From TrEMBL:
Quaternary structure, from the entry: Homodimer.
Alphabetically ordered keywords of this record: Amino-acid biosynthesis, Aminotransferase, Arginine biosynthesis, Cytoplasm, Lysine biosynthesis, Pyridoxal phosphate, Transferase
Cofactor(s), by name: pyridoxal 5'-phosphate
Pathway as given in its UniProt record: Amino-acid biosynthesis; L-lysine biosynthesis via DAP pathway; LL-2,6-diaminopimelate from (S)-tetrahydrodipicolinate (succinylase route): step 2/3; Amino-acid biosynthesis; L-arginine biosynthesis; N(2)-acetyl-L-ornithine from L-glutamate: step 4/4
Catalytic activity: N(2)-acetyl-L-ornithine + 2-oxoglutarate = N-acetyl-L-glutamate 5-semialdehyde + L-glutamate; N-succinyl-(2S,6S)-2,6-diaminopimelate + 2-oxoglutarate = (S)-2-succinylamino-6-oxoheptanedioate + L-glutamate
Residues bearing the modification N6-(pyridoxal phosphate)lysine: 256
InterPro entries (alphabetical): Ac/SucOrn_transaminase_bac, AcOrn/SuccOrn_fam, Aminotrans_3, Aminotrans_3_PPA_site, Class-III_PLP-dep_AT, PyrdxlP-dep_Trfase, PyrdxlP-dep_Trfase_major, PyrdxlP-dep_Trfase_small
HAMAP family named in the record: ArgD_aminotrans_3
Family that this chain belongs to: Belongs to the class-III pyridoxal-phosphate-dependent aminotransferase family. ArgD subfamily.
Name of this chain's protein: Acetylornithine/succinyldiaminopimelate aminotransferase
Chief location category: cytoplasm
Location in the cell: Cytoplasm
UniProt KW Membrane keyword: no
Length: 406
């Protein structure tokens, strides 16, 4: 085939021409970021309240993260899993020292971390004998896009087109402990739960619900898995949300903020379960490579400080106050829920299911936010976003709200 020159100028139209249409991206293309700001091809600026879907926990192009990336890039990028490396060992020790875990498995995404967790739980069930293979999950949950994790997620719109789906996964109402108590049995190998349902509408779990799940899992010898892909690494104001609730899981999954923008995932667990995975049982080519783990190690070191974690709670209050100010004037939200810097503003009855419309207007006003279903505007900004940027972003949001409410 004749070699064609790579195009120098690309546009949003090229996405429709060249990309498999699994996304419907915004009309503009961001090309540069710094802190909590982004700029598009036309030079227009945006305040970033989305954080790459709770990923850019230290904003864009943080100088210390860039320095770490450059230093590791000058050494070694990738080795494959026939070898270990220094950055991955250091990051594993950081995670173990800061959490309940004894062992860590590294991969490339939240879906992969949850896939590993669910496979480990099924393996545990098989070793226990009998028919111990049921996984209890929750309606409106989201755990990833692999066939196993999309089935565990309780949103049929994401899974039904890919049937037949992996069996023995039961979906129950979130925050309904009685439903779990009536379903769980000796056949149950695991319960998987998000401490805050992110994609499902930013819905926090009740403390009694998570405590009850822990007790039921202990009673029936089932593995309790916390999916902390979105809530982990400082997002709620604690390092991990389980510390917020005082409920310790058997397996925890982490990704998103862990790499601060560099793809990485991790499954944390105790020796009791880790020993079930042996060489050849599970693996990944890129997981735990030196480039990703060096970056994640620096991100984790910077976030796991009293100053940053307490700063998340302070910023939470600024957001709540600013959103209340907007809502007092326009009555566009029925409630704001969430913890730390994972917030969901629920559209009021008059503006029901117009979250996407408001998000589009916000982008036109120079604010990047998220949605969590058709009725919730979601915010997951940098954990260190300056107060002035929060104020400016909320001012832009108010202009968008004013347009929606005319």
């Amino acid at each position: 085939m004749e070699h064609q020159q790579q195009p120098q100028n690309v546009s949003r139209q090229n996405f429709d021409d060249w990309m498999v249409p699994v996304y419907a991206p915004a009309a503009f293309i961001p090309v540069r970021g710094e802190g909590s700001w982004l700029w598009d091809q036309a030079g227009k600026d945006y305040v970033d309240f989305a954080g790459g879907i709770a990923v850019n926990a230290l904003g864009h192009a943080h100088p210390e993260i860039r320095k770490t990336l450059h230093e590791q890039a000058d050494k070694v990028w990738h080795l494959g899993n026939g070898y270990t490396n220094e950055p991955v060992l250091r990051l594993a020790k950081q995670l173990i020292d800061a959490t309940f875990a004894d062992k860590v498995f590294f991969c490339n995404s939240g879906a992969e971390a949850n896939e590993a967790a669910l496979k480990l739980a099924r393996l545990y069930g098989h070793k226990a004998g009998g028919e111990k293979n049921e996984i209890i999950a929750f309606k409106n949950a989201f755990h990833g896009r692999t066939l196993f994790t999309v089935t565990a997620g309780g949103q049929p719109k994401y899974s039904e087109d890919f049937a037949p789906l992996p069996p023995a996964i039961t979906h129950l109402p979130f925050n309904d402990l009685a439903a779990v108590a009536s379903q769980i049995s000796s056949r149950t190998c695991a319960v998987i739960v998000e401490p805050i349902q992110g994609e499902g509408g930013v819905v926090p779990a009740d403390a009694e619900f998570l405590q009850g799940l822990r007790e039921l899992c202990d009673k029936h010898q089932a593995v309790l898995i916390f999916d902390e892909v979105q809530t982990g690494v400082g997002r709620t104001g604690e390092l991990y949300a389980y510390q917020h609730y005082g409920v310790v899981p058997d397996i925890l999954t982490s990704a998103k903020a862990l790499g601060g923008g560099f793809p990485i995932g991790a499954m944390l667990t105790t020796d009791r379960y880790a020993v079930l995975f042996q060489p050849g049982t599970h693996g990944t080519t890129y997981g735990g490579n030196p480039l990703a783990t060096a970056v994640a190690g620096k991100v984790f070191e910077m976030i796991n400080t009293a100053e940053v974690l307490s700063g998340v709670s302070k910023r939470h209050e600024w957001f709540i106050a600013g959103l209340k100010r907007i809502n007092d004037r326009y009555h566009v939200f029925s409630q704001v829920r969430g913890q730390g810097l994972l917030l969901g503003a629920v559209m009021s009855e008059r503006y029901k299911d117009q979250a996407k419309q408001l998000n589009t207007l916000a982008a036109e006003e120079g604010l990047i936010a998220l949605i969590a279903g058709p009725n919730v505007l979601r915010f997951a900004p940098s954990l260190i976003i300056p107060g002035a940027d929060i104020e400016e972003g909320l001012n832009r949001l108010e202009r968008a709200v004013a347009r929606l409410c005319v």
